[in-house]
Amino acid sequence: MDNKDISKNSLKAWVLASRPKTLTGASVPVMIGLSLAWTAVGAEDFKLLPAVLCVLFAFIMQIDANFVNDYFDFVSGKDDEQRLGPARACAMGWIEIGKMRWGIILTTALACMVGLPLVLYGGMEMILVGALCVVFCFLYTTLLASHGLGDLLVLVFFGIVPVCATYYLQTATCTWIVFLASLACGLVIDTLLVVNNYRDIDNDRRAGKKTLIVMIGADNGRLLYLWLGIIASLMGVVFAVYGQYWTPLLPTVYMIMHIATYRRMVKIGKGRQLNLVLADTARNMFVYGLTVSLGLLLSLRE
After folding, report:
1. Closest CA to 140 of 127, 151, 126, 129
2. Which residues make Cβ contacts (< 8 Å) with residue 289, sequence separation at least 6?
3. Which of 10, 71, 185, 235 is the most interior residue, by most CB within 10 Å?
4. Any idea where the domains of the chain sit in the sequence?
């Protein structure tokens, strides 16, 4: 997209900077957490307000993380003319650096305001959870992603934390099966980071950015992408022990789509066309969230 098509600091520029397609990664863990909670407490005891606040907090934090990534990758020189991924707002000149700083400040403050009422439902520990989300939102781009820890953060903050916290806010407890579901969710979300870093492996090496894919190599990176999705799907089998047969069955739709996307990834190999795989992966993630949630709700009716 030509930057002449985007007015500087316009609403369209901010929408593009928020990266709407990445909101899939924010919605899926909350969706799964809420579905798990619904099966545990039922419709009568399900609390609507904390559910809405969890969704809003997740979306705002995802946008905040995108702003932070856009800003710091630009000022550090990582976003340049050799970038293969989708265009970034600061690098393209759509948003001025000073404006982006204010965007980060405002979205961070808004996320805190939205998350604060959750203390009424989950106790003071919710402040700690929120604070960790904000801190690691910044640490991811500024430090950890360049040292091979990005995938671990995805597992924690797009799997364990949102799924378990969302469930806890409805039930005041957390079970081992919920924790297992949160791990599976984190593995699925990490496929998006893996294909993103696989696409950028050459540029990351040039920039001295040591992602996990840079460390293990492209061939192993492709296999990692494949097995993350397969293992996550197979982890759902544990629900069958409790008679919830729909929960492990429906996500096989995701696994079929994931394997097809992997084959496309292998066929493309390198280059900007991997952005098509990135889009397919985001779609697959959403399908995973839908099928797991639907499986849980169908199992509840049996």
Report:
1. 151
2. 24, 27, 28, 29, 31, 32, 185
3. 185
4. 9-301
Contact criterion met (CB below 8 Å) for 244 and 278: no
For 99-108, 196-205, 293-302, which range has the lowest pLDDT when averaged over its residues? Answer: 293-302
Which parts of the chain are beta strand (E)? none
Say if residues 292 and 251 touch (Cβ distance below 8 Å).
Answer: yes
> Quick count: other Cβ atoms within 10 Å of Cβ 127?
15
Distance, CA of 165 to CA of 129 (rounded, Å): 8
CB 32 within 8 A of CB 181: yes
pLDDT digits (tens, 9 = 90+) for 269-283: 988 899 999 999 999
For 112, how many CA atoms within 13 A lie in the half-sphere containing its CB? 13
In terms of Cα–Cα distance, which of 125, 93, 132 is closest to 10? 93
C-alpha triplet 21, 27, 28: angle, nearest 5°: 105
Q: Report the alpha-carbon distance of residue 150 to residue 198 in Å, rounded.
A: 13
List CB contacts of 112: < 8 A, sequence separation 6 or more: 130, 134
pTM of the model: 0.92
Instruction: Output the CA torsion sign for 235, 239, 244, 245.
Output: positive
Residue with tokens 């929120």: 130
Q: Give the number of residues written for the chain.
A: 302
**Using CA atoms, how far apart are residues 236 and 177, in angstroms rounded to an integer?**
10
Confidence class for position 81, pLDDT limits 50, 70, 90: low
